[in-house]
Design brief:
0% helix; 8-stranded antiparallel beta sheet; Jelly Rolls; mainly beta; globular
Length: 176
């Protein structure tokens, strides 16, 4: 387990960017953690997505799976291979609550050049639409099928841009 965690950088939705990036990530830690809140300006739906990419790689080098549950007892499993991203969830502006979703992402051994990178994530939000409220919770796992060390993490809105109040922080983890 982590013996020391160091805050490396924070990115915000100031100016409503479509992409938030952590760049020039220090290679002197064992693992990485990204955590924060986000929401999309798009009114396309109450539930939208954050796509995650590493090392500016837009090729079909990602796969991911997640399980979900809502307060209406809806359950689901999604598994996707040969994708151009790892997809997580966040609320859109059709959500009348003006809610923000959370994202927690753990990336072990991000500096190794011996194997593909693993990502564990959890995300969720409360959705208020047409007088009905539901809570959406997701947990998942993904792989970036590349042996390069991760020196950049891009968080991208699939439809719109990040709301101004969106904020994500990157932490480096030392395990010894």
């Amino acid at each position: 387990m982590a013996e020391a965690t160091t805050k490396l950088a924070t990115v915000t939705g100031s100016g409503n960017p479509a992409t938030l990036s952590f760049t020039s990530i220090s290679q002197s830690y064992d693992d990485l953690i990204v955590m924060g809140i986000g929401a999309d300006t798009s009114t396309a739906a109450a539930q939208l997505y954050i796509d995650i990419q590493f090392y500016n790689d837009t090729g079909s080098n990602y796969c991911y799976g997640n399980g979900s549950v809502t307060t209406s007892n809806t359950r689901g499993i999604a598994v996707e291979g040969n994708q151009t991203q790892i997809r997580t969830h966040q609320p859109g502006s059709q959500n009348s609550e003006e809610a923000f979703g959370f994202l927690y992402m753990y990336i072990p051994r991000y500096t190794t050049t011996s194997y593909a990178k693993q990502v564990w994530f959890s995300d969720g939000f409360v959705c208020q639409q047409n007088g009905t409220q539901s809570t959406n919770v997701y947990a998942g796992w993904g792989v970036w099928n590349n042996t390069a060390a991760i020196n950049e993490i891009d968080l991208k809105c699939l439809f719109g841009t990040f709301k101004t109040e969106s904020k994500f922080t990157l932490y480096g983890v030392k395990n010894s």
